[in-house]
Amino acid sequence: DSTTLWLLGDQLDPTLDALAAADEVLLIEASGFADRKPYHAHKLTLVFSAMRHARDDLRERGHDVTYLRADSFGDGVAAFLADRPDATLRLMRPPSHGAGERLREIVTAHGGTLELVENERFYTTPADWHAWTGEHDSDRTYRQEHWYRHVRRETGVLMDGDAPVGGEWNYDDHNQETPPDDWEPPEPRRFEPDALTRETHEWVTERFDTWGNDSLDGFGWPVTREEALAALDDFVERRLPAFGRYQDAMVGTEPFLAHSLLSPAINLGLLDPREAVDAVETAYEERGVEPGGYDPSSAETTLEAFRSDDGPDGDDTTGGSDDATDGDGGATDVYGDAASVPLNAAEGFIRQVLGWREFMRHVYREAMPELATANQLDQERSLPPAYWDGDTDMTCLSEAVGNVREYGYAHHIERLMVLSNFALVYGADPRELNDWFHLGFVDAYHWVTTPNVVAMGSFGTDVLSSKPYASSGSYVNRMSDHCASCPYAVSRTTGEGACPFNALYWDFLKENEELLRGTGRMGLMYSHVDNKDDAEWEAIRDRAKRVRELAAEGEL
Ligand code: FAD
After folding, report:
1. 450 CA to middle of ligand 1, Å?
2. Sorted alphabetically, which SUPFAM superfamilies does this protein's record hold (predicted)?
3. Which of 118, 156, 192, 485 has its CA 20 to 30 A from that of 46?
């Protein structure tokens, strides 16, 4: 009997173990889902182009690939089984809730058999998770930091025997600097759309109602395995050194800073999370320095780092070369080649992939289906129109929405501390926010967007954090250069022209006092709440009401 491996659009790795045991590969390009929401044109282009490239790549590697274009999986499976009535399909269990069972029903309904196997696309398995929760948890709330340490111990990644490399598990306090004004982040590597991507994009924009930038300008995502590997290499060589230090910063006109931009490739299956972790761990072994031991904004420090024993050697660096000190590029030139990797950069990145990404996947599995509709704060407002058109005077919000409209991307802190923070203190419905993230971001899939948006960003449930990620304008002010150019005054809470975040924040704390004061982690914030007198509260309420009206009318 022959076995067909059915690969979904987020399982595009041509080096999967599962491929070795398959006689045939099936890919079904089911596009009907894209009629249901106005997805970002770049997201649809990316997903369909990557599938088509994977088809060609797999064929070149000698696989027998059937590629079907259909409206739905049902139609595609029916067409596939029509001339192979008793076929057995094998599928790596998809991460989205219930998807494996739904697909099994579809196959069975058409007379075939579907065998679900473990998904190789994650670092850890459900069994690994249960081994951990069995020991550590009884009340079904989970904490990333505990999981992360457990996985480090189990995998030996960045470990020195039983101890974490450098002595600390987490260098988050070295992840919170903002770059100097004249710092130019190294340009991320972009991949020019080829003929197949251009053809796919043309079809996408004709066929679907899309949202955001519908030209291919700005589309530079890797769409093949080869490009994904090149993107990883480029990140590790040129951008990782600054990743740690500026991980939480926001800078106007710099949407990418030193972020890896790898989530679309990892989530599509073009890149294995292990490869990303291994590459960063190896870079640290070869070019590592202590946390903060390398200043990416200073050419001089760079040279010192290169000359020190900790720095890299050989001619694959600019160490000792004259180029580094003269010429017009300064720090950016030096930066063009492999530089030292501080521990806070390596650990910071590995925490995101090995810690957060895996954690979110398992929390989602455990907390669904309730997670999708969780709304413990009973927030019901519609998203303000600014989320759709980016039209607002608030610099932070207009920059973040602008990045999403342009690239289908915003980095983590914009997602958490601007886009979801504003929706949270404004009182937006977490489900609507989740839909918005899902259709707007090139890396969005239900399994990863939902825990990030509904649990982490909206505090719809306490399954993964005991307090909300809510803040006033002061956080944005500390971590960005936005407030200096914003017409709203971050220093003021009330009255016309005051930063909208401020009144909304205090009003949010007051509105949700019963639940939040009781969490025990908001003590300091509620001591500030308690210190405000009645007149202050009246002004805060007035301003919050006014801000909500303006936002709802698209006038903020
Ligand atoms: P980097 O900053 O370079 O981080 C490295 C990698 O770590 C990422 O590529 C990603 O694979 C992983 N990672 C980091 N944080 C998370 C996390 N919280 N959950 C899962 N993986 C993580 N990530 C998605 O992949 N898809 C989403 O739809 C998504 N929606 C989000 C919504 C909100 C409200 C928030 C707060 C976060 C969301 N994230 C999502 C997580 C994170 O913001 C993105 O993974 C990251 O910004 C992607 O950009 P990057 O590759 O440049 O990341």
Report:
1. 12
2. Cryptochrome/photolyase FAD-binding domain
3. 118
Distance of CA 334 to the CA centre of its chain: 29
Per-residue pLDDT tens over the stretch 26-43: 999 999 999 999 999 999
Of 391, 48, 406, 410, the C-alpha closest to 212 is 406
* Angle at alpha carbon of residue 373, lines to 371 and 377, rounded to 5°: 95
Do the Cβ atoms of 407 and 42 come closer than 8 Å? yes
What residue's CA is closest to ligand 1, atom 8?
263
Distance in angstroms (rounded) separating the CA atoms of residues 292 and 306: 15
Each residue's pLDDT tens digit, 51-65: 999 999 999 999 999
Which residues, judged by CB distance below 6 Å to any ligand atom, belong to the binding site of ligand 1?
Answer: 259-263, 266-267, 349, 352-353, 356-357, 360, 411-412, 415-416, 420, 437, 441, 443-444, 448-449, 452-453, 456-457
**Distance from C-alpha of 169 to C-alpha of 163, rounded to nearest angstrom:** 8
Query: Residue ranges per domain, the chain?
Result: 3-117, 163-193+219-351, 368-553
The fold for domain 163-193+219-351 equals: 1.25.40
- Name residues whose C-beta falls within 8 Å of residue 139's C-beta, 6 or more positions apart in sequence: none
**364 C-alpha to ligand 1 centroid (Å):** 15
ipTM of the complex: 0.99
| CATH, domain range 3-117 | 3.40.50.620
The predicted-structure confidence for 405-421, as pLDDT tens digits, reads as follows 999 999 999 999 999 99
What is the dotted CATH code of the domain comprising 368-553?
Answer: 1.10.579.10
pLDDT digits (tens, 9 = 90+) for 499-525: 999 999 999 999 999 999 987 788 889
For residue 263, the ligand 1 atom closest to its alpha carbon is 9
Count of residues making up the chain: 556
pLDDT at residue 523 in the model: 85
